[in-house]
């Protein structure tokens, strides 16, 4: 079975059907793109998968410890614990906390330090803090953020904020990482740097990545497969080459040359 | 590890020094009965404000009902210690207060902490008023509107000081730990916090319960020291008074709350001779302070011993994130 | 038409622009390009009077405007499409467009311009009674553009109009910018998408950490090695 | 501390602490004003023991913690000889530990709760005195009045559940009243709209309304009841004693209203008329029952100091206990062993807003 | 049944007072998201201005009402300029504290000026009582009820249809973008305060007339209830303030009317909390989940 299976997924807002009857599958260690016009329902799909919105109908199954587990009606934090990590279209860092704290918060659930242990400062508490700190610093180093650990997140330049968001998502130890327009607001040079970073994460962490992006240079470059949404429906699916030449996609999204 | 101990030692010395200073003051008669009342008011306000700050400043939940939990603590302590007028009776009463306040906080927290902003504020205000009205109507136990009087005076400043140290250590240790960071992340961005796998409801409730428990302690000490309590001591205006201390000190700064409680306590002494004009001066001061320093005295910063002792090492000490 | 002289803007202690100089002539499209945080948006905020410069001058038709209120500046004919659209959510498309004509009293002309905007963005006419909060990003961008046009600006300031838009919309937006320009509106354009921006621009300026480091015609800049390396990814 | 105002021998320090701001500032301010007036008069007439009174005043903010704080300040820091105030029971109780420890006596003009002057074991609090009736006294007197004078057997009680004053009066009344209590309704001090409870009792079979409460709510209740067509007699306590009762209720509505009082404002006793004139002159409003009690309290304290011959705290306490036949605006009285005044009450009858008679009741 | 209907009338009349005050509350909240705690005290000032106008200036009712509204409008704008404007970019709690400070200032300033005793409001309009089918309703009750409805409709019209109203809505969603339209944001906010405060002034005079009782602390309790009403209705929503006010008034009255006068407020709060649990953004609030 594939890692994540989505069937007939639908989300209505009042009369508007933001996502309708969407089917999708993600396998192990894949790098998949999700594109579509503005308002097609891409972000909404992410929100459904991560439990931020509750689907109107449909099936979302994730493989957890070899078993098929439904994500419907699960709380976001449970879903995260099961291995789905994400970034946000509009950056949502913990702005007034330091870079390090942002990452440590991502690690919190996986390094259960009990409230009681923390209040009474048991030896376990010290040990856990030590190891979390070490791990966080290593992660930050990997993303060239090691010199910024004590900076407040809000004071980082935009590009570094995007990177920190990815680090923070990785700190939750996800099996699947959802990236929502990581290159938005970046110039082509910055986008190129980001492209190689995504490749590296994909390789080093051996995880599956689902990527929303309007920058075709990035999508076509890194994605193995691409899904295309329009008006909430999946209108196409295939390799970058197939998508580039798909009439419907060109008409709805890419535009003719 | 060495770093931690050094810092803990610093705080220990600091606390001991303050204790000795107060002790010296009372022995030499510098702190007379009147200053002692002021001191007690300040100490009790410190507990109240730090507890509320945990809820509002750290978990980011807007509670306007702190006085309700204080009332629970005050009445439990009053009732128990009238029956058993001993130190054990006092501690038993306070413990009972903590337990009941925590249970009530848990019970109301689970449904209401889903609410946001002003809606939560109104709900918590309502909870506090319900607590007060229940107390008002439990005549046999609470003596209704007339309240309890003749509560034995047991909570001297030494006992109060001990309670303050304990509750501050608990709260500080909590916020400077992984669960504490999880709590703060809710204030920063609830949706992002959930996406980090944090059970936001759980940590909101922990903060709410801890805050309620500390309010119960403060209420118990208040009852025991002042020996009279009435339901009308714990109205919405009391919650507002505590809120003022918290905001004045800086939302998200525990040491700020401590400093603000002290400053406002001392301000009150100086304003007392002004009679009716006092409240006018106080309100003008309140507006002026907020206009000129909207983030409060300390903002979200904490005053630290290490920062005071050697400013050079400040960076590394913050890094350790230990009980500052 | 617009002259910016030695402009320095601060946010608290952070200096966002450092004695910037540039100008925009009547009828031109001028592009400002530069990395994130270079100070591009800050320049536009200073021109519109949203953020006061600490020193320097901004002249519009030889008249200093850096001490004027935003209201005055809008009255003089400068209109801005801010970064991130900033449509009025909770108001309908048509109400948003009417807000653009807030300072105008000529009811008939306003109706004409409304029609003009709908001609340019037909989709908006279909959505005219819809709450802008529920529009897609591209549609919101059109509302923001249409709203700015409703004030009949002489100078239109555009801050990253293509951000977050699907490729097909990007093309459309740039076509519209060209069209507006040929119909007589001067345009100052900020874009991350430097290639397209420089293609349609008469002239361009490159900003780096608050300073102008390079200038030239659009074609010159496109051909420049530095620009190629820093902004065009190769 | 036996020499209260030891250091400054040509002045006698008296403390005044009242609720001048906050919830119950209406009563506190009236009392504080009357205290000032009395002190001014005494000083103009040569003071006490040929010494001028130095009045040290504080506001308790209607807050008990603050009351404890200023009582301590007066007793230990300012070292006053005696304290007048505060107005409410709670504030007096909060001040009790401090003044008792310092041995400074405190006379409250209007703290009415029975337990005020007693400790938990029923022993008298050595330093607490009051000039007003205690709740049980009035409650019983009114119950008797209802039975004997109104010939009424069916009562409806409308009480202020947020005030200990009203609760005390209700409790005493219920204990003493032999007739039937048809209904008992409650309101809180914040309320201004009483239509709900009045509608509820309107069609019940009852002969009078017992309304323990202060004039500011009582006035509104009388108005709303009469407008609604409830015509039965309304019986209240000394909290009615303010001109505002008539104005709030509307003069026409104040019909069949009875209340127990310390004195009749229409009395032609010169002490009463002089006091009313002086107060009006000074503050431009009619004095109320609270003002009268506070005014008397100062003269009472002055008499005690005069009689003790010195301004030491202990001798003043002793003199207060022994005071014989103090003659003031609110009657002639001395203290019983529980520090409560021994005096009778007048039940005043109002018809069409005019006092038409009064009956002396001594339960 | 008759008793129930009578209580309903009582509840509506009490509720319309809460609603009247809540309208101004919600209006100000709607635009700058500030809980203007001093609103209840402006209402109190309004009552005193009306009192003075009638007693000392010997004006008749309507001129006194207008004078009070104008005075309160000016007062509201002054408070906004002095105490709230500097805090536009501060946290909302900081602004709330300032508002509480202003509330204290108005209360205690008034106590200082006129004393804290309760006064009777001059009864310039004779209160007639109408009876039909055994139900009673007074002229002032009708007056207040009608005023509330009319003002609610008028406000709704102003906010939805007029240019100023649109400017207000624009400022409330995005102040900087509103500036770019040439809107003078400060003036719009001042206008909102003027409008909201003049409503409070009108309420002060009307309620003063109705209950015949005014004092410096009179704004506290109804101010708090009105705030609760505004939140219950969905804060920032004009018809919501009205429905919230009616709801609270009716619940309060029915609870008292059916023997619960001791626990009236507790029941009100309990119902309030239950309503909020099921409708977390108030009666008329749209339950929009934040778009992420
Ligand atoms: N909470 C919501 N309430 C109402 N409508 C919503 C909500 N969230 C999304 N929508 C609507 O659903 C549709 C899909 O929105 P979504 O954000 O998923 O688009 P998208 O594909 O991510 O577009 P973009 O590329 O512009 O980010 C849009 O029309 C949007 O207005
Ligand atoms: N409100 C603000 N407060 C403090 N600093 C700010 C503020 N706005 C911008 N800055 C800082 O000013 C500098 C210039 O920002 P500006 O927004 O003008 O950059 P930009 O070139 O428009 O970048 P982008 O491509 O991300 O839009 C940056 O360092 C930024 O962090
Ligand atoms: Mg999206
Ligand atoms: Mg920018």
From TrEMBL, chain A:
Q: Which PROSITE patterns match?
A: ABC_TRANSPORTER_2
Q: Which UniProt keywords apply?
A: ATP-binding, Nucleotide-binding, Transport
Q: Which InterPro entries match?
A: AAA+_ATPase, ABC_AA/LPS_Transport, ABC_transporter-like_ATP-bd, BCA_ABC_TP_C, P-loop_NTPase
Pfam families from the entry? Answer: ABC_tran, BCA_ABC_TP_C
Name-wise, this protein is ATP-binding cassette domain-containing protein
Gene3D superfamilies referenced in this protein's UniProt entry, alphabetically: P-loop containing nucleotide triphosphate hydrolases
What positions does the domain ABC transporter occupy? Answer: 4-256
Question: One MF term from GO for this chain?
Answer: ATP binding
Would the keyword ATP-binding be found if you checked this record's keyword annotation? yes
TrEMBL record, chain B:
Organism lineage reads as: Bacteria, Bacillati, Bacillota, Bacilli, Lactobacillales
Q: Where in the cell is it found?
A: Cell membrane
**Designated name of the protein:** Branched-chain amino acid ABC transporter permease
Q: Does the keyword Transmembrane apply?
A: yes
Give the keywords, sorted: Cell membrane, Membrane, Transmembrane, Transmembrane helix
Highest taxon in the source lineage: Bacteria
User: Pfam families from the entry?
Assistant: BPD_transp_2
Q: Which organism is it from?
A: Carnobacterium inhibens
InterPro entries according to UniProt: ABC_transp_permease, LivM-like
UniProtKB/TrEMBL annotation, chain C:
Q: Which domain of life is it from?
A: Bacteria
* UniProt keyword annotation of Nucleotide-binding present: yes
The cross-references to InterPro entries, in alphabetical order and at most eight, read: AAA+_ATPase, ABC_branched_ATPase_LivF/BraG, ABC_transporter-like_ATP-bd, ABC_transporter-like_CS, BCAA_Transport_ATP-bd_LivF, P-loop_NTPase
What keywords sit in the KW lines?
Answer: Amino-acid transport, ATP-binding, Nucleotide-binding, Transport
Pfam families hit by this protein? ABC_tran
Q: Does the keyword Methyltransferase apply?
A: no
Gene3D superfamilies from the UniProt entry: P-loop containing nucleotide triphosphate hydrolases (3.40.50.300)
The Swiss-Prot or TrEMBL record describes its family as follows:
Belongs to the ABC transporter superfamily.
Annotated protein name in UniProt: ATP-binding cassette domain-containing protein
Native organism is Carnobacterium inhibens
UniProtKB/TrEMBL annotation, chain E:
User: Chief localization class?
Assistant: membrane
Recorded hits in Gene3D superfamilies, A to Z, give: ABC transporter involved in vitamin B12 uptake, BtuC
Listed under GO biological process in this entry are: D-alanine transmembrane transport; L-alanine transport; L-isoleucine import across plasma membrane
Q: Where are the transmembrane segments?
A: 12-32, 60-79, 91-114, 142-159, 188-211, 226-255
Keyword field? Amino-acid transport, Cell inner membrane, Cell membrane, Membrane, Transmembrane, Transmembrane helix, Transport
Which family does this protein fall into? Answer: Belongs to the binding-protein-dependent transport system permease family. LivHM subfamily.
Q: What is this protein called?
A: ABC transporter permease
């Amino acid at each position: 079975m594939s890692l994540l299976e989505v069937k007939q997924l639908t989300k209505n807002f009042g009369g508007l059907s933001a996502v309708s009857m969407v089917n999708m599958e993600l396998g192990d260690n894949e790098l998949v793109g999700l594109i579509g016009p503005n308002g097609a329902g891409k972000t909404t799909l992410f929100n459904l998968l991560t439990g931020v919105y509750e689907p109107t109908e449909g099936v979302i199954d994730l493989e957890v410890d070899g078993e098929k587990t439904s994500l419907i009606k699960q709380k976001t934090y449970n879903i995260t614990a099961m291995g789905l990590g994400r970034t946000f279209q509009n950056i949502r860092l913990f702005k007034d906390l330091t870079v390090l704290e942002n990452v440590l918060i991502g690690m919190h659930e996986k390094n259960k330090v009990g409230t009681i242990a923390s209040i009474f400062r048991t030896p376990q508490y010290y040990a856990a803090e030590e190891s979390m700190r070490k791990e966080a610093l290593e992660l930050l180093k990997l993303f060239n953020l090691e010199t910024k650990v004590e900076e407040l997140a809000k004071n980082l330049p935009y590009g570094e904020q995007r990177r920190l968001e990815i680090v923070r998502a990785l700190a939750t130890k996800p099996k699947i990482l959802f990236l929502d327009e990581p290159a938005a607001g970046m110039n082509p040079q910055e986008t190129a740097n980001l492209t190689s970073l995504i490749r590296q994460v994909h390789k080093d962490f051996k995880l599956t990545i689902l990527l929303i992006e309007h920058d075709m240079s990035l999508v076509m470059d890194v994605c193995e497969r691409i899904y295309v949404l329009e008006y909430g429906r999946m209108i196409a699916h295939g390799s970058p080459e197939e998508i580039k030449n798909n009439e419907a996609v060109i008409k709805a999204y890419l535009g003719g040359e | 590890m060495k770093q931690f101990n050094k810092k803990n030692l610093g705080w220990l010395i600091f606390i001991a020094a303050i204790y000795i200073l107060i002790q010296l003051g009372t022995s030499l008669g510098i702190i007379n009965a009147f200053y002692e009342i002021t001191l007690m008011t300040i100490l009790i306000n410190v507990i109240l404000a730090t507890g509320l700050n945990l809820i509002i400043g750290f978990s980011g939940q807007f509670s306007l009902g702190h006085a309700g939990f204080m009332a629970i603590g005050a009445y439990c302590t009053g009732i128990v210690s009238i029956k058993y007028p001993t130190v054990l009776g006092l501690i038993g009463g306070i413990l009972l207060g903590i337990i009941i306040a925590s249970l009530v906080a848990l019970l109301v927290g689970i449904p209401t902490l889903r609410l946001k902003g002003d809606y939560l504020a109104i709900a918590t205000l309502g909870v506090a008023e319900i607590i007060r009205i229940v107390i008002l109507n439990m005549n046999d136990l609470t003596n209704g509107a007339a309240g309890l009087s003749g509560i034995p005076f047991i909570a001297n400043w030494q006992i109060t000081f001990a309670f303050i140290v304990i509750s501050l250590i608990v709260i500080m240790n909590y916020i400077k730990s992984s669960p504490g960071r999880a709590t703060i992340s809710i204030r920063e961005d609830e949706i992002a916090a959930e996406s980090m796998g944090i059970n936001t409801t759980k940590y909101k409730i922990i903060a709410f319960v801890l805050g309620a428990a500390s309010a119960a302690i403060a209420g118990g000490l208040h009852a025991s020291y002042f020996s009279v309590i009435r339901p009308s001591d714990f109205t919405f205006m009391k919650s507002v008074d505590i809120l003022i201390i918290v905001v004045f000190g800086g939302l998200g700064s525990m040491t700020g709350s401590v400093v603000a409680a002290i400053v406002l306590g001392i301000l009150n002494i100086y304003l007392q001779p002004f009679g009716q004009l006092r409240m006018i001066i106080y309100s003008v001061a309140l507006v002026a302070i907020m206009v000129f320093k909207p983030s409060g005295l300390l903002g979200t910063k904490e005053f630290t011993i290490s920062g005071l002792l050697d400013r050079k090492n400040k960076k590394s000490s913050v890094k350790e994130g230990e009980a500052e | 038409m617009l002259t910016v002289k030695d402009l320095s803007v601060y946010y608290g202690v952070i200096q966002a622009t450092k004695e910037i100089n540039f100008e925009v002539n009547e009828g031109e499209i001028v592009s400002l390009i530069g990395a994130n945080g270079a100070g591009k948006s800050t320049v536009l905020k200073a021109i519109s009077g949203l953020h006061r410069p600490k020193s320097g001058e901004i002249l519009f038709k030889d008249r200093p405007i850096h001490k004027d209120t935003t209201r005055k500046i809008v009255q003089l004919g400068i209109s801005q499409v801010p970064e991130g659209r900033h449509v009025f959510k909770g108001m309908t498309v048509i109400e948003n467009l009417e807000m653009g004509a807030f300072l105008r009293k000529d009811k008939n002309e306003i109706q004409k311009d409304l029609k003009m905007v709908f001609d340019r963005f037909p989709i908006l006419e279909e959505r005219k009674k819809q709450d802008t909060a529920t529009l897609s990003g591209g549609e919101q961008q059109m509302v923001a553009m249409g709203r700015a046009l409703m004030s009949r600006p002489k100078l239109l300031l555009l801050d990253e109009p293509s951000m977050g838009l699907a490729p097909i919309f990007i093309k459309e937006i740039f076509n519209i910018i060209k069209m507006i320009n040929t119909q007589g509106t001067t345009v100052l354009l900020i874009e991350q998408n430097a290639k397209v921006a420089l293609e349609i621009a008469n002239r361009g300026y490159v900003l780096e950490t608050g300073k102008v480091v390079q200038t030239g015609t659009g074609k010159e800049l496109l051909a420049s090695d530095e620009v190629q390396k820093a902004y065009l990814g190769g | 501390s036996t020499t209260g105002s030891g250091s400054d021998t040509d002045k006698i320090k008296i403390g005044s602490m009242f609720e001048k701001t906050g919830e119950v500032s209406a009563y506190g301010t009236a009392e504080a004003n009357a205290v000032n007036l009395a002190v001014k008069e005494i000083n103009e007439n040569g003071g006490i023991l040929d010494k001028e009174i130095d009045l040290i005043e504080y506001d308790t903010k209607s807050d008990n913690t603050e009351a404890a704080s200023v009582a301590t300040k007066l007793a230990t820091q300012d070292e006053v000889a005696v304290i007048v105030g505060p107005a409410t029971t709670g504030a007096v109780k909060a001040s009790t530990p401090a003044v008792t420890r310092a041995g400074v006596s405190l006379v409250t003009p209007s703290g009415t709760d029975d337990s005020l002057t007693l400790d938990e074991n029923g022993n008298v609090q050595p330093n607490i005195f009051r000039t007003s009736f205690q709740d049980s006294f009035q409650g019983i007197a009114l119950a008797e009045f209802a039975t004997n004078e109104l010939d009424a057997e069916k009562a409806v009680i409308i009480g202020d559940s947020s005030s200990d004053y009203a609760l005390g009066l209700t409790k005493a009344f219920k204990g003493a009243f032999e007739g039937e209590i048809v209904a008992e309704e409650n309101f809180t001090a914040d309320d201004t709209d009483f239509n709900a409870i009045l509608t509820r009792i309107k069609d019940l079979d009852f002969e009078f309304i017992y309304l323990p409460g202060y004039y500011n709510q009582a006035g509104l209740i009388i108005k709303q009841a009469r407008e609604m067509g409830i015509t039965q007699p309304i019986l209240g306590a000394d909290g009615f004693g303010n001109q505002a009762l008539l104005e709030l209720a509307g003069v026409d509505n104040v019909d069949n209203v009875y209340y127990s009082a310390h004195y009749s404002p229409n009395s032609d006793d010169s002490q009463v008329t002089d006091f009313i004139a002086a107060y009006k002159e000074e503050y431009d409003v009619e004095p109320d029952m609270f003002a009268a009690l506070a005014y008397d309290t100062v003269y009472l304290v002055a008499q005690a100091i005069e009689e003790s011959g010195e301004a030491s705290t202990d001798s003043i306490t002793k003199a207060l206990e022994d005071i014989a036949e103090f003659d003031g605006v609110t009657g002639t009285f001395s203290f019983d062993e529980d520090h409560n005044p021994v005096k009778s009450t007048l039940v005043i009858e109002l018809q069409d807003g005019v006092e038409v008679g009064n009956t002396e009741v001594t339960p | 049944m008759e008793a129930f209907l009578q209580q309903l009338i009582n509840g509506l009349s009490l509720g319309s007072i809460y609603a009247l005050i809540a309208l101004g509350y919600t209006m100000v909240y709607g635009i700058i998201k500030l809980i203007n705690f001093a609103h209840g005290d402006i209402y109190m000032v309004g009552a005193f201005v009306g009192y003075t106008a009638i007693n000392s200036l010997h004006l008749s009712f309507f001129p006194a009402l207008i004078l009070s509204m104008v005075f309160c409008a000016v007062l509201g704008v002054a408070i906004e300029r002095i105490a709230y404007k500097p805090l536009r970019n501060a946290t909302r709690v900081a602004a709330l504290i300032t508002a509480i400070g202003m509330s204290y200032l108005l209360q205690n300033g008034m106590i200082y000026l006129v004393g804290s005793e309760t006064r009777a409001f001059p009864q310039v309009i004779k209160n007639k009582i109408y009876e039909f089918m055994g139900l009673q309703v007074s002229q002032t009750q009708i007056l207040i009820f009608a005023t509330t409805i009319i003002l609610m409709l008028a406000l709704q019209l102003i906010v939805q249809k007029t240019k100023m109203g649109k400017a207000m809505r624009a400022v409330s969603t995005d102040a900087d973008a509103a500036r770019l339209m040439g809107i003078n944001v400060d003036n719009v906010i001042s206008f909102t305060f003027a409008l909201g405060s003049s409503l409070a002034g009108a309420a002060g005079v009307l309620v003063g007339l109705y209950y015949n009782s005014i004092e410096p602390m009179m704004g506290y309790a109804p101010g708090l209830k009105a705030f609760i009403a505004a939140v219950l209705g969905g804060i920032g929503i004009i018809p919501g303030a009205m429905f919230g006010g009616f709801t609270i008034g009716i619940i309060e009255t029915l609870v008292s009317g059916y023997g619960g006068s001791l626990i009236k407020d507790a029941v009100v709060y309990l119902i309030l909390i239950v309503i909020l649990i099921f409708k977390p953004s108030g009666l008329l609030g749209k339950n929009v989940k934040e778009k992420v």
